[in-house]
Amino acid sequence: MLREMKMPGSRYVFALIVSTLFILASVGASQGGWWDKGKDLLQKFGVETGKKGLSTDEIAAGLKEALRVGTERVVARLGTSGGFNNDPLVHIPLPEKLKTVQSTLKKLGMSYMLDDLESELNRAAELATPKAKALFWDAIKKMTLKDVQSIYKGPDDAATRYFQEKMSLPLSKEMRPIVDQSLSRVGAVNTFNRIMDKYRSLPFVPKVNADLTGYVVDKGIKGIFYYLAQEEKAIRKDPVKRTTELLKKVFGAK
Predict the structure, then answer these.
(1) Rounded to an integer, what distance in angstroms lies between the CA atom of residue 191 and that of residue 116?
(2) Is residue 1 part of a domain?
(3) Percentage with pLDDT > 90 across the chain
(4) Is 158 in contact with 166 (CB distance < 8 Å)?
């Protein structure tokens, strides 16, 4: 009669698995699938079976590549005709201050002017968005090892949060003159001036001021960050989104 083994629970299970693996290994090549199942068991108990961990350099390179790929996709999506205007998730509505103007001119059958302005605001954001790509890529190059490790181990939108904290102000500063030029280019400035001239000609209307450039910059940046968060999450979770070998290696290992 066999004596009962005196061994702590976890050590007993570990010994049992190892013993089982050696027995199964002797069965032969035709039973190779059992060996693989045994390795899976060992991995569940925290035992390494030959798979090498990722180096810090690989993690850093993979994360930076993911961010470059993500920003490339966001810019391609939003920095094109209809990118903002046709997307209900990031579409830029009229500034709240112009709602009064819109309701007043609507009574005169002139609300179409505000519709034109709204389309032009979105088009200005679309023209300015490509500027963001170079700024993001420059920020990626400047990321420290501490930044990389924190983002890699963080939640699905860790990189987006990092960029929001580091880049909102410089991005706003860089994009403002681009948006200003874009507003003029698409005719929004002329449209706005015509609207306000007509509005101010009416008696007893309240005074209205609107910073179109600042408004479009703010809404445009929010749209960029919204889709950057979606891209980051997709690369972390969806193998289909890992379009390079490095992305597959780094994020497939998580």
Answers:
(1) 8
(2) no
(3) 22
(4) no
For residues 199 and 111, membership in a common domain is answered with yes
Q: Tell me, yes or no, whether 14 and 134 share the same domain.
A: no
**How far is 73 from 180, CA to CA, in rounded Å?**
24
Residue 105 and residue 16 share a domain = no
Distance CA 89, CA 67 (A): 21
Q: Does residue 142 share a domain with residue 64?
A: yes
For 2-29, the pLDDT digits (tens) are: 444 444 444 544 444 444 334 334 444 4
What amino acid is encoded at 84 in this protein? F
Q: pLDDT tier at 213 (50, 70, 90 boundaries)?
A: very high
For residues 85 and 13, membership in a common domain is answered with: no
Q: Give yes or no for residue 61 having a pLDDT over 70.
A: yes
Kindly tell me if the per-residue pLDDT of 43 is higher than 80: no
Q: In the block, which residue shows the tokens 């969806």?
A: 238
pLDDT at 30 over 90: no
Q: Do both 113 and 173 map to the same domain?
A: yes
Residue ranges of alpha helices (H) inside the chain are: 9-25, 32-44, 56-78, 99-106, 112-128, 130-141, 145-153, 158-185, 188-200, 212-237, 245-252
**pLDDT at residue 86 greater than cutoff 70:** yes
Number of domains in the chain: 2
* 22 assigned to some structural domain: yes
Q: How distant, in Å, are the alpha carbons of 34, 37, 224 from that of 231?
A: 39, 35, 11
Residue 59: per-residue pLDDT: 74
For residue 212, pLDDT beyond 60: yes
Residue 208 lies in a domain: yes
Domain range for residue 141? 56-252
Pick from 41, 14, 46, 45: nearest CA to 5: 14
Q: What is the DSSP letter of 240?
A: G
